[in-house]
Design a protein that fits this description.
By secondary structure, the protein is α/β, with parallel strands linked by helices. The protein is built from nine helices and 13 strands. The relative contact order is 0.15.
Length: about 325
């Protein structure tokens, strides 16, 4: 079996959906299928869903599988191939996901944290391609962080995934499940923006936000960005606040790592155009200490497919290592 006539399978597991894709060894996405994983129903339901999805993708591609990779929301035990996630995958604790897939498909199976997988994919075929070092920051329901250097995922002690999304920004800020107050995720993730909006609307009944049905309970981050686009001053203030918190996080990352590139992605950053000018202006001020202006800061090119590409790339690297 040669790489030219094989495919890699990438699997991206989230709290709501699971995606599987057939990717060529050169990084071309050939086929993709999605399904609801219904995480609360546990692995007894979810594992067969994943296996059926992979079977479908393989059938569509019609080529032998070289290796299979998984990018999953964490925490994970990569050494034992287990998902340990009571947060976004309730009931998926100490679940061996690697062994069943390896036995079913008879190929090497890699398991990576979803943030690491997405960064690996972006470095392989996306906005991080060609850079020696790249940091990827994902801001959506949570905040993900990953560092790729020379095509390899940076790992912490014992191979663990560093949680750059929980760096401390404002000690007087809201509490986070990580145990800190005012970490980056607690200030800029979608739920955090929505929480700030719910507080703001209480004292600003004239705001755009007050016109959202079932306010304040149903307010979401997207309503804040929608209001800012319509010129609502309260929403603009919340967007500026979000930009300021994001740039504090970026400055900390640049000071510590100073990578060649920073790639930004996630649902919140779909509204990057509303924050870009403020963020880039603030970054100019740190050029005195570090050459921050030389760091390429840009949006993801692979978007929601990054995890698929990265999982496939992780599979490829594992297969090459075991060959």
């Amino acid at each position: 079996m040669t790489p030219e006539n094989t495919i890699l399978i990438g699997i991206d597991i989230g709290g709501t959906n699971v995606r599987a894709g057939a990717v060529s060894p050169q990084g071309d996405l050939l086929f993709r299928e999605d399904a609801l994983i219904e995480a609360a129903r546990g692995p007894d339901y979810g594992l067969p869903v994943i296996i059926d999805l992979v079977d479908t993708v393989i059938a569509q591609a019609g080529q032998p599988v070289l290796a299979l990779g998984i990018g999953s929301t964490g925490p994970l035990d990569r050494e034992h191939g287990c998902i340990q996630n009571p947060y976004t995958l309730p009931g998926w604790e100490n679940v061996d996901i690697v062994s069943p897939l390896r036995q079913r498909f008879g190929v090497p199976v890699a398991l990576e944290n979803d943030a690491d997988a997405a960064a690996l994919g972006e470095a392989w075929v996306g906005a991080g391609r060609g850079f020696g070092s790249m940091v990827m920051v994902t801001i959506g329901t949570g905040v993900g962080f990953a560092l790729i250097k020379d095509g390899v995922i940076h790992r912490g002690i014992g191979g663990e995934h560093p949680e750059g999304g929980h760096i401390l920004i404002d000690p007087s800020g809201p509490a986070c499940y990580c145990g800190a107050n005012g970490c980056l995720e607690s200030l800029v993730a979608g739920p955090a923006i929505a929480a700030f909006a719910r507080e703001a609307v209480k004292s600003h009944p004239e705001s755009f936000l007050a016109r959202i049905p079932d306010t304040p309970e149903k307010l979401e981050a997207k309503h804040v960005f929608d209001g800012a686009r319509q010129g609502d001053s309260i929403c603009i203030g919340l967007v500026d606040q979000t930009a300021d918190y994001i740039v504090r996080g970026l400055i900390s990352i640049l000071m510590m790592i100073l990578p060649d590139a920073v790639v930004l992605t996630g649902g919140v950053l779909r509204s990057f155009d509303l924050m870009e000018e403020r963020i880039r202006a603030a970054l100019e001020h740190v050029n005195v200490i570090i050459p921050a202006g030389k760091v390429h800061i840009q949006l993801s090119k692979t978007g929601q497919q990054a995890g698929l590409f990265g999982a496939a790339r992780a599979a490829q690297l594992l297969q090459e290592k075991e060959a």
